[in-house]
């Protein structure tokens, strides 16, 4: 059976469009995964350093600054439709204002952490970190699939 060149071209174009649609948000998904991984690692390191007998304030400040950069990048990494092939729930886009408010709250807590570290206030830093972690956990329960 012979296929006309136009049918082959149409099929190839449709296949390429389907592939492009699936991979459309691949970069955003990778970037937000990397940001969340970095946030988790820095968070763990900061928590450990705050429990230390000799608190390494310069290290804490550097890690806190990196943490702020990672959290501020998140707001642009959830374009509409990027839940496909990710662990993000559609609920993010169904209630975008609520989701953005939660991200902003997390960011404010990490800014408070940074301020406390600048002031070398261990108790305020621990409290800000606790509040940030609480916000993270709450958001994950609402907006992230575990499978």
From TrEMBL:
GO terms for biological process, alphabetical: electron transport chain
Matching InterPro entries: Cyt_c/b562 (IPR010980), Cyt_c_II (IPR002321)
PROSITE patterns named in the record: CYTCII (PS51009)
SUPFAM superfamilies xref list: Cytochromes
GO molecular function: electron transfer activity; heme binding; iron ion binding
Protein name: Cytochrome C
Native organism: Shewanella psychrophila
């Amino acid at each position: 059976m012979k296929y006309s060149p136009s049918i082959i071209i149409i099929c190839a174009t449709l296949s390429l469009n389907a592939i492009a649609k699936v991979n459309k948000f691949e970069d955003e998904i990778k970037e937000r995964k990397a940001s969340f991984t970095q946030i988790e690692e820095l968070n763990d390191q900061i928590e450990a350093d705050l429990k230390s007998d000799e608190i390494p304030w310069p290290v804490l400040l550097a890690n806190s600054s990196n943490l702020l950069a990672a959290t501020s990048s998140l707001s642009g990494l959830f374009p509409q439709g990027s839940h496909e092939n990710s662990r993000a729930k559609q609920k993010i886009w169904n209630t975008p204002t609520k989701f953005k408010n939660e991200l902003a709250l997390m960011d404010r807590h990490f800014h408070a952490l940074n301020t406390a570290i600048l002031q070398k206030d261990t108790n305020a830093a621990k409290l800000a970190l606790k509040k940030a972690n609480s916000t993270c956990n709450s958001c994950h329960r609402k907006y992230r699939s575990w499978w």
